[in-house]
Amino acid sequence: MSVWNKDRFGQVMEAAKIRLATGAAWSRQWAGVQAVRVRNGVSHVPRKVLWGIGAGLAVLLAIIIFLAQPNWNWFRPTLSSIVSDRLNRPVEITGNLRVRLFSFTPNARIGGLKIGQPDWAKPTLKTNMAEVQQLNITTELMPLFIGRVVLPRVEITQPVVTLFQDKTGRANWNFGTGAKSAKPFKLPPIKTFIINDGQLSYNSLSRRLNFTGTVSAQETPGAGRKYAFNLNGDGRLNQRVFELEATGGPLLNVRTDKPYPFDMSVRAGPTRLTAKGRVLKPFNLGQLDGDVSVSGRSLAELYEITGLTLPNTPAYKITARVGRDERIYHINRINGRVGGSDVAGDLKVDLNNEGRPYLTGDISSKMLDFKDMGTLFGATAANAPQAPELDASPDPTRAVRRLLPDVPLDVARVRGMDAKVNYKALSVKARPNLPLRQVSLGIMLDKGRLTLNPVEFDFPHGRLTGMADIDARTDVQTNHIDMRLKGLRIQDFTPIISGAEPVEGRLDARIRATGTGHTVHDAAASANGDFALVMPQGTIRQSFAELMGVNATKGLFMLISKDPKETPVRCAIAGFKITDGVMRAQNIVFDTEVVRVSGSGRINLKDESLDLVFEGKPKKFRLVRVDVPIVIGGNLTQPKIGLDAKTAIAQGGIAAAFNSVLPFINLDYAGDANCAALEAQTQSKVGR
Fold this sequence. Notes:
alpha+beta; 688 residues; elongated; 20% helix; two-stranded parallel sheet; 11 helices; single chain
């Protein structure tokens, strides 16, 4: 280094030392001035205020030190009281309470936690609703400042949970004031959830279900466990075997934006249910969806599992996509078979009315097997009618096998839900002599009142329409039916005989009746109302007409020779008055050009016996004629037909019959003129 540089460097260093010394002196001077200012300011603060500030700081420091202690047993009574008020039932902590408060992940360990039963359940249950040997909870601190609870880890050791539901539907897991609630079970987001050796029991008096099982949720599958999450057990459902198993993966690193998948299978007697589902927002059971498959003996048996009042049906197998959005269930893409009929459609179950189900939607069938419809009203194979038989003495007999179903309506179920569902069958498979084409039903259930309106049965020609109403809102169930048949072709329902149709014509009918009782048979056995049937015009094989007049020679000869000759039907009517379950014939008239038939008698809907008598008189001279009435006896299940030579019947007037029947039917067709002419003609003959 040159001499000049050395001298220059020395000068710079000396100047730096002078600056540092000057700065330090200035700093000491400034600090001194500030200290003097503080002392002067404090000297002006009252001594009591200074003591108060000091005491407050000391208390705050003491609280911080106190809360930092892990032993919080002193807080157990207070915490129990707070939780009891929130859950509306007694809560007790009998073990140690350990809390680590000052952390970014505060945690608590609660030993011996006991949650009691609500007051209304205590007389029935002697055990607590829940007992937990150890509960460890860890939470995140920062989300708490915005009112959000996030639990990084929850671990429950040996929980014993007892769930109970009484006959009215009150449930002890409803932590409200005791009213019914449909709110789904929901927990805060939990990232890791561990359950060790859990036990669960469930007893529902309203569903007639009791169940005992075990539940565990481990970090990995263990010995003898294929899945990390397992819930399985068994019990009895309506006195039948009940088994349930639900499985899933470990509840680790759970994210609220990633669904948690699970599998479930249920066996309840003959009912089988399997589901591959997802909890859309983990630990929020109000957000679910999945593919469900269910099969069983009757849809009505799903009530104990689902709480839905479904009709009696034949055996079924159905799949659907089921989703839950809080209090609303969507049952979409329904596909399957019920009996011999296919079913498809979409349904929705709304539980917003304090948990009361409201079922709505549309169901359809491409092909309805008509015999499946009888099951809806409780009909079984025992209710099937038998072919009529000839009998030498066809007396009325009490039905041993009833035609009218006597399966009672479950009033409690009907009152427990509401519904508005439409059903339509695009085609119908029925007997050859029952050519149905389409069926439509509107089903409404409102607080115990079941209404079928409209009821529509479409035939190739003609239609059956009307409504049926079942009012089960009171102890005495009232049933009302009003059905009208219009424009039905009789030949569509009669077999071909000897290459020709034996009867041709258009038929109109109506029935209107009201009865009481919980079964179809009981309602009919107490019914009051009217029934009328009219065929204004048509044709009939003359051979049959002759036989109706019991012309033993001419009619039999024409049948044997297969004579296709026809004779016009001037009119045919049948009118019955229904009183206290007995249908009494008021007018039965069948008038052709060759014979006129009159009838009388009754049909007893109480024992289903038949007691009808028909007498025919030819309109032209016949060489041989057996003047005895035709008798129909037996019962609705198996009518018996024969002759009764001891009975004589007075002929009725066609005019009187039409005066009473036509206003009730309220016909509107071109054939009125023919019937009116026949009525006038008959009146003139009677007057002579």
